[in-house]
Design brief:
The strands form 3 sheets. This protein has an 8-stranded mixed beta sheet, with helices on both faces. By secondary structure, it is an alpha/beta fold. The model has no long low-confidence stretch (mean pLDDT about 95). The radius of gyration is 25 Å and the shape is globular. Helix 13 crosses helix 22 (about 490-495). The longest helix is centred in the middle third of the chain and has 24 residues, at about 280-305. It has helices at about 5-10, 35, 40-50, 65-70, 110-120, 150-165, 180-195, 200-210, 230-240, 260-265, 280-305, 310-315, 320-330, 340-355, 365, 370-390, 395-405, 435-445, 450-455, 460-465, 475-485, 490-495, and strands at about 25-30, 55-60, 75-85, 90-95, 100-105, 125-130, 170-175, 210-220, 245-250, 255, 275-280, 415, 420, 430. A hairpin with a 2-residue loop joins strand 3 and strand 4 (about 90-95). The protein has 2 domains: about 5-280, 3-Layer(aba) Sandwich (Rossmann fold), CATH 3.40.50.720; about 285-495, N-(1-d-carboxylethyl)-l-norvaline Dehydrogenase, domain 2 (Orthogonal Bundle), CATH 1.10.1040. The relative contact order is 0.09.
């Protein structure tokens, strides 16, 4: 079977949207599954729906990557968006044609091509997703490197070349999963300006003519299809071989922090895509952390103890689903500073996302580092609810009890792999967390429930404060933990929503 490219696609009679030639308007650092299922999809839809008429040039951010494979397929690839939407199963296929070429800047030809693109009058945007470790200042980088090893170093090289050519400023959209990603990237570029002794005119160009945007991305991207039989069936249906098949969930939102004019400049609003430009992305990150991530951490530990193994099965159980929804709608949303309809719409989408029929999201994979996750994702909602309502939130309180139960149920051993416990099903499971947290639970494995809860709540390394100061919290958790031990976590969840 022939490899996917424009010639092969034409031979198959594909009748979906394809744009073969257009000006190269985006330099994108990163060619992995996420950006291809998210950013390149966004621009592809913008070509079709908004007449954007642009292409993205992908730059391989590290020495090994997908450049040869991308170019062998004319940078075409098949994207499947799969999941639930409004309670309905969705499986959409789209051949993405918004990418023109892929460059490897670690070769002389690729580095030269990157700098040539830098001075193009067509270029408008730089997009990046170079992992959380990508936005770092490495003082070993020099302007003369071909290229700099760090992404901010490469970007400084690109912007300086563009500045020397007297081309206009660019819009930089950072997608890395760190706080204030755009601001941190700009900070690194300014550090290179200082280190390399570049002129004040370039500093003004970077800080005034270019627009560095912090952004928040939200789409689950499983990426490759690992079932060889399914791949074979898809290739037979498509009529071509695709080494770059990508899979993402249907839901997607891209919050971009920037000036008001940017929303009209970007093609996404006109294309009907969920990509609001906002003055501050922080509330939207709080929404994602408290609702989406907080939902996971809030129910999965108790659900696992109750015998569930994957998220989808939890959503098909009335008690667990009801527990999650009451926690979100009654206890989390009242504490958040955004428009209530926006929050409830986002929460409604969570149930669809968690009920994705194409993804077996294991509860144990979500359980990793649950101590720090509960502190970051659930504790702020809990404390703010108590402050607002002057009472304990039933579901978040039960969630905390389930967290303690997860780390202390039939403790077996502590090894280099983690703390081994045993649930009612009879199988052992391994709690993975910071070593000090695991050692704490190991040391307290023989405590009574009351002693254990007191030790957990007064451990300020865990929570940054003494949680026994919250009126009634300690007593309630002791009672709930005892009920989990005797009646099971599902009974506790049912009691919280009664």
């Amino acid at each position: 079977m022939e490899l996917l490219n424009y010639r092969t696609l034409q031979k198959t009679g594909y009748n979906g949207y394809i744009l073969e030639n257009a000006p190269e308007k985006v330099m994108q650092f990163g060619e992995g599954n996420f950006l291809r299922a998210f950013v390149n999809y966004w621009f592809d839809v913008s070509n079709e729906k908004a007449g954007w008429n642009g292409k993205c040039v992908l730059v391989q951010p590290i020495a090994t990557g997908l450049t040869e494979l991308m170019n062998a397929q004319d940078c075409l690839y098949t994207l499947y968006l799969r999941g639930n939407e409004g309670g309905q199963k969705v499986d959409r296929k789209r051949v993405i044609s918004s990418v023109s070429r892929c460059l490897n800047p670690y070769t002389p030809e690729g580095f030269s091509a990157m700098l040539e693109l830098a001075v193009s009058p067509d270029l408008e945007y730089v997009v990046s997703n170079t992992t959380e470790a990508g936005i770092v200042y490495d003082p070993a980088c020099q302007l003369s490197d071909t290229p700099c090893s760090s992404f901010p170093g490469k970007l400084t090289q690109v912007l300086y070349k563009r500045y020397e050519a007297r081309q206009g400023g660019l819009i930089i959209l950072s997608c890395e999963l760190i706080d204030n990603n755009g601001k941190e990237l700009l900070k690194c570029v300014n550090q290179y300006i200082d280190q390399w002794g570049l002129d004040d005119g370039f500093r003004a160009y970077v800080n005034n003519d270019c627009t560095f945007c912090s952004t928040l991305v939200d789409r689950i991207v499983p990426g490759r299809i690992r079932d060889k039989d399914e791949v074979a069936r898809l290739e037979e249906t498509n009529g071509y071989r695709d080494e770059l098949i990508d899979v993402g969930e249907v839901f997607g939102v891209w919050n971009i922090e920037g000036p008001a004019w940017l929303e009209e400049k970007l093609p996404f609003k006109k294309a009907g895509l969920n990509c609001p430009v906002v003055p501050d992305v922080t509330p939207y990150k709080k929404r994602k952390v408290r609702i989406l991530n907080g939902a996971h951490t809030g129910f999965v530990l108790g659900a696992y103890l109750a015998g569930f193994d994957i998220v989808r099965d939890c959503m098909e159980n009335d008690t667990v689903r009801g527990f999650m929804n009451k926690m979100l709608y009654d206890e989390v949303i009242p504490t958040l500073p955004l428009d209530k309809k926006d929050l409830t719409d986002f929460a409604a989408a969570v149930q669809d996302r968690f009920n994705n029929p194409f993804v077996n999201h294991e509860l144990m994979s979500i359980s990793l580092n649950s101590t720090s996750k509960w502190r970051a994702r659930n504790m702020p909602s809990f404390l703010e609810y108590v402050e607002l309502k002057k009472e304990l939130p039933p579901c978040l309180t039960a969630s905390f009890a389930a967290y303690i139960a997860f780390y202390s149920t039939n403790v077996q051993e502590l090894t280099d792999k983690g703390l081994t416990c045993r649930r009612a099903k009879g199988n052992d499971y391994v709690c993975s967390d910071d070593r000090w947290a695991l050692e704490f639970y190991w040391e307290h494995r023989n405590d009574t429930d009351a002693a254990l809860v007191h030790a957990v709540m007064t451990n300020e390394q865990m929570w940054g404060q003494d949680l026994t100061a919250v009126p009634g919290f300690e007593k309630a958790v002791v009672e709930l933990l005892g009920k989990i031990r005797t009646e099971g976590a599902l009974a506790v969840y049912a009691g919280a929503i009664a």
